[in-house]
Amino acid sequence: MAVVLLMSAAIVGLAAMRRLRRAPLDRTGARPRAGVTVRAVISTLAVLGWVILLTGVGSGLSPLTRDTVAGTPVAAPPELIQAGMPATSAKPHAPDPLAALRIGDCVEVPIEQASDPTGAPSWKAGAPDPVDCTSLDANYRVVQTGPAPCSDPLWHLESSRHSKAGALIYHLCLAFDWRTGFCYDTAHLDEPSKVDCGTPGDHIVQATAVLENTVGGGSCPRDGAGAVWVVWDQRRLTVCFRGSDRPGP
Predict the structure, then answer these.
(1) What confidence score (pLDDT) does residue 62 get?
(2) In what order do the strands lie in the sheet with 168-176?
(3) What's residue 181's pLDDT?
């Protein structure tokens, strides 16, 4: 519609211009001016055309569509920050090395001298620690493992540990580690200690044989001075020494 009005205004205007050019000159030599009616028609048609055109353009614009969200508005969460792998506070416990010991393995047991209620000397054993049997610190060896009570005749100490849930972690039955070729300080024969063979002392002895399930020294090796031995009847154990040795106090 607006385009038609604009075109009509243009046609009327052109026609008026042609008529104006063709009109005869008046007595003064000038062409007569276009009538007020023609000008009014042209102006009216032009104005109506532009109004209708602008109105149509404005009405033809579609509003921007927006998403409609139902519900209660919630504040946006804070910006997430990339974090590293979470560290676990509880680390798995390392296996107890004592639980891996087998019969024949050796341990070091700290021995502290004390006194019993009568004043007689006694000994307090500390916690065992696995060591190589060739070490001078290896004063005990394992003769039995497992949950059963110690029954090996050689056992002298036992050590065990349980978990918080009550499960057995280890149970060791230990005997003193008499070993052929090693030297011992036997000043306290009930609790001797391994020493270097060059250690001076009246009761430094060297084991020449360790006889289990034997309660006599008839099988002990002899040297030029003969042989000396010590028998533990209950343990059914005989330990042989050099003929010149003086075991015990």
Answers:
(1) 43
(2) 129-131, 106-108, 140-145, 168-176, 157-162
(3) 98
The alpha carbon torsion through 183, 188, 193, 195 (nearest 10 deg) reads -40
Side chain identity at residue 148, one-letter code: A
What does R_g of the chain's alpha carbons equal in angstroms?
Answer: 59
The token pair at 205 is 């002895």
- In the chain, the amino acid numbered 99 is A
Distance between CA atoms of residues 159 and 170, nearest Å: 8
User: Which alpha helices (DSSP H) does the chain contain, by range?
Assistant: 2-22, 36-60
- What's the CA gap between 16 and 35, in Å, rounded? 9
| Average pLDDT of adjacent 10-residue blocks, the chain of 249 residues | 51 51 49 50 53 47 45 56 56 84 97 85 91 97 97 95 94 98 95 96 97 96 97 96 94
